[in-house]
Amino acid sequence: MEVAINSKQQPWMEDVLARAEQCSANQLRSQLPGLLNLLPEEIRLQVLSALYLMPPEQGLQQLLALEEQGYLPPDPEKHLEEKVRMLRQAGIFDFKYLKFLDLGNSPLASVMNLAMECWHSNPQGIRLLADQLQELGHPGLDAHILRSIASYSQPLPKLIWQRPGTKTYFTSVSPKGKWLLLSFSTEILAVNLSTGEETVIDDVGGHWHWSPDGKQAASLAGRSESVLLVLTTANGKIHDPREVPLPENYRLLGWMDNNNLAIMSSTNTYTSRVAKINVNTGNVQWLSDYREGWPTLNHAGELVWITPEKGTLHVETAKGTKSFLIYDDASDYVHFDFLSPLDWFPDNKKILFADSHLGLTGSLCHSLDLASGDFDRCGEISRIYSPGNWVDDKNAWDFYFFGIADCHYSPLIKTNFISGEAEFAGLVLPISEMTRYSSSGKVVAVAGDQGVQVYRMP
What we know:
By secondary structure, the chain is α+β, with helices and mostly antiparallel strands. About 20% of the residues lie in helices and about 35% in strands. The protein contains nine helices and 28 strands.
């Protein structure tokens, strides 16, 4: 650079500056002070100084001043990525530093990740990001969820129990949120969430189903699918599981009452058979032969078959069958190939259906009103939603996945399946390869790469 300056050769100086902009951060930290001594007024060197020599907040202020003076980076995407790095170091998400942001040339995932890390400190920045996405025609609910995050004013969820590290395969919270069951690869952990007492059970379970009174939980045994494990709670303690033999190739459908479970077997011809098994005696009573349709249990423990036929859904209980015309046009019958009953509303007056063919980051939902026959779109669920995560008669907990590749965070939301609206619930967690969650009322347990956390919602 000194030779270039003394010779007054502008092309040489441009070449040196261009090379400096391509240097690594470590190289710049050693060479940049000398270059600045030679050309203290050179705006490109001032930018590099702000990026790599100054403390993050001071550097951000200098970049802001230089941009206001008209500085245009040769590589806007790289420039913005470096500013996001500095904002993360400073713990700041402020939209005034994010000039040059657009979907065409910017690291949008980095900006979104930063926004989620700092969501509670700058709601105005979150709103501006939502506006930017909407103006750019970004699809899906991302902008709506961002605005819901920005407007959140409730107390934060309270962490009431946690366990770091170990990979969890199944997570289950009991009715009224008193117990937590975790299925690991070599053991079962039962946690009394009222006292914090932990009980390790030397067995392997799967997905747990709680009895209506919350005093028993049942799961297929991990070592044998023809054995049923039944845990019992009493006096604040949980007891080692007793084993109940099962017919081969049956899985659990759920509890019919506090003594009997419904079990089902399915074939590759889309037919199923259902039986009732008494967990105290082991007696099995067959409730159907193999037949077409979806066997479901409503919240009263009643077996209800739901069967599609052309454009009609037949809903069959022990009291009779009601038929609902869903699609008039034969070209729409194909929707039933992607539609399946997901859950019953807690009042048993509606059935929630998921349409796996529709939805950007999950599945669109429809509700079937058994009184009126209305079949209405009612929201969207994520790919990790599982039945039973109701907050009340209308709302359920879920996690929202932004429609942006490489976004590393997912906010907890409360979805109203009457209105279809989703609102932020005060919790943002890193996305894990195997995120699992379970809830009961205001108690929500989440398992992922960071371990297991249990929250009491406001």
